[in-house]
Amino acid sequence: MKTTDLPRKRKTRWPVAVLGATGAVGQMFVRLLANHPWFEISELAASERSAGRKYGEVTRWLEGAPPPQAILARRVIACDPGVVSAPIVFSALDATVAGEVEMAFAKAGKFVLSNAKNFRMEPDVPLVIPEVNGDHLGLIECQRKNRGWDGAIVTNANCSATVAAVALAPLHQKFGIRQLFLSTMQAVSGAGYPGIPSLDILGNIIPFIADEEPKLEREMLKILGTYEDGQVTSAAFKVSAHTNRVPVEHGHTICMTIGFEEHPTPEQAIDVMRSWKGFPATAGLPTRPDHPLVVSDAPDRPQPKRDVNAGDGMTVTVGRVRRDAILDLRMVALGHNTVRGAAGGSVLNAELLASNGAFDSA
Ligand SMILES: NC(=O)c1ccc[n+]([C@@H]2O[C@H](COP(=O)([O-])OP(=O)(O)OC[C@H]3O[C@@H](n4cnc5c(N)ncnc54)[C@H](OP(=O)(O)O)[C@@H]3O)[C@@H](O)[C@H]2O)c1
To answer: What pLDDT is attached to residue 2?
Structure first.
């Protein structure tokens, strides 16, 4: 992460809370925020099962070095806006509770950066990948008007939709996607902790992830849609998704077959992806990788084991771009599901909001 100076006018880091801090995505938030140049963790919240106990006691740390002692010793609190004082909250809540809890925080005037599915498709809620559609944050103004609250809910997408949308954004912008077929191979960390029983997934593939295919299809169209006059018009191409759970720890890999309005050659598509810079206002943000999208020339990449941590987990790697006998092109994309597809994406959303002045009064 870059140690970028705080945005103008701001002298101290913004206090932030993590809701659902004990889970797979919550832990990734804690990892990314522990030394963040703009945000400082002030509170960690989870269910009543964890509230009142020390974070280090109720969290089974999943990977890498554990967070600093001061964080492990902190008491977990309830996900209650009357108890959480931070004006900005990152939500890694289970979808069964996220709807009610996130709405209560927004009503209480807080900025909610959510990973849950509950509000993603609401017309007045931004569904944002900063480099792809940072301009969709304009929806916050009409959300506040519609709902009569001072807070806001900003969502990031389903983890597979995020990987696909980063890879496809430059191609859609340049050549116009007409048809898209995709098939995912999704890591077990995408199912949270403790997630899928080991005997169900070791040496196995599960060709079903509940509700994943419709989520992936509709969210991608909203992300690649256009924002104008306070509303988002979803992209109109046809999309068909298969989603599969595979015995990989981190990283969702997606095979895609794509038809375009204009019919690029593989070389033209590669050029467009390689020269893509993304939404200009994201340049220089602490969590933004130098290259959100990388195209590999190797015949056997991307691979989760080798490419999942590209750009500290924020880079999507594409490979095997080639002609297709039915549509125009085929390719493979890979991204880190709990970093780019979850916590890292949310932190980048917050950085873009902070740099736009959205948190100036927080
Ligand atoms: N994993 C991924 O790759 C991924 C990617 C994108 C989006 N997401 C989304 O991110 C969210 C979190 O996913 P995850 O994989 O981190 O799940 P997880 O490991 O199961 O963690 C769920 C978190 O929610 C908390 N929680 C559960 N019930 C609660 C309640 N009644 N009140 C307050 N907190 C409660 C849990 O706290 P306790 O420990 O106290 O029970 C835990 O902190 C989900 O909405 C998921 O769909 C996940």
So the answer is: 75
